[in-house]
Amino acid sequence: MDTRLTAEQDEIRRTLRELLRKRCGGAELRAAADSPAGYDPALWSALAGRLGLPGLAVPEGYGGVGCSVTELALACEETGRALAPSPLLATSVLAAPLVLALGTEAQRAALLPPLAAGVRTAALAVPGPALATALALTGGNDGPWAGGGRAGGVQARRGGDGWRLYGQADQVLDGHSAHLLLVPAHTGGFTRSRTLLFLVDGDAEGLARARQTALDVTRPQGRVQLRDTPARLLGTDDADVLTALADLGDGVATVLAAEAVGTAGRALERTVEYVGQREQFGRPVGSFQAVKHRLADVYVRVQAARSAACYAAWAAAHGRRAGRLALAQALEAARSAAGEAIQLHGGIGFTWEHEAHLYFKRAAGDELLFGPAHRLRDRAAEEAGLFGGAGLFGRGEVAV
């Protein structure tokens, strides 16, 4: 595996880092996160217009750049460094690949170009606590998260004029602001029970949305309520939605791992800068051996996570899967780096005005949405058959 960046990849990183440094400082980040949409539309337009970021992994035939998941992960590492609030994760990592995988040719041609251009955004309307399950990151994705034939989730029924959806999804990433919703819904009752994926326009009749309070303000979430809401089926009624979501999971984990590495790396950099400036007993705090040891431990974690994320991106480009393990490593590194950032910044690290808590909340929020790390590892072990096919937390016997 060659981890060296190509000239194109290096240019993506350099240009994106420079743009985010100018347009996503502390004050700009807070203003964007506090806005109704939860992100800065002007910054999103710049990311789309100058870099083609929303369409980075969309095929050229549908208006995208045609790069692989490696370039998308590289870009998300930079947005993770800046904690940049944007629809990139919801639109380009979660929604667009599903349209590409399940949509008809006409749907792809109609939906992907505006998503790739950044003029429209999309969201996958899976309840936040069930997102890791739906993507098969932490277990099988055949549970009741999309309705399951019981009350709750989202239900679909066919009417004379098409499909109608009923139900509610909470903590949907960018669910309150996306122009297009991809809604997994349960249909068929008990006799032909199955999950299908539907398209719902943001201004559809019977759709009610509101932004929700979230631990991580840089990762905006919304409540989506569907009350006899008209919807269009994505693809055909025999599409294997659960398999498509499970196949998507490894790519999502790979991109998230890179993003978490960026968050962890920047938190560590800021901490090293601060302890080199802050003085105690007439010398920089960073010169004390105990502080050096703590930062060295974080550095090792971050570098190990970076190596795992690089391998996962390489593996994804070669038809292999390593995203879950990389994400587990990266989430732990981000939590460790952000926690030490707060501790080693001293009293200022606990204040609302400082950015240290934003890094910690991003790390903790991602672990709540996509982890925890031990469940990610357990699922990877289960797929590899290391523990009798049931994982450490399943009911199988440990293989000997």
Automatic annotation (TrEMBL):
Q: Per the database record, which ranges form the Acyl-CoA dehydrogenase/oxidase C-terminal domain?
A: 255-383
A Pfam family that the UniProt record links to this protein: Acyl-CoA_dh_1
Q: Which UniProt keywords apply?
A: FAD, Flavoprotein, Oxidoreductase
Boundaries of each Acyl-CoA dehydrogenase/oxidase N-terminal domain copy? 6-118
Matching entries from InterPro entries are given as: Acyl-CoA_Oxase/DH_mid-dom_sf, AcylCo_DH-like_C, AcylCo_DH/oxidase_C, AcylCoA_DH/ox_N, AcylCoA_DH/ox_N_sf, AcylCoA_DH/oxidase_NM_dom_sf
- For whether the record's keyword set contains Flavoprotein, the answer is yes
GO molecular function ontology, one term from the record: acyl-CoA dehydrogenase activity
Query: Could you tell me the superkingdom of the organism this chain comes from?
Result: Bacteria
Does Glycoprotein count among this protein's keywords? no
Give the family, as the similarity comment puts it.
Belongs to the acyl-CoA dehydrogenase family.
Q: What is this protein called?
A: Acyl-CoA dehydrogenase
The organism of origin for this protein: Streptomyces collinus (strain DSM 40733 / Tue 365)
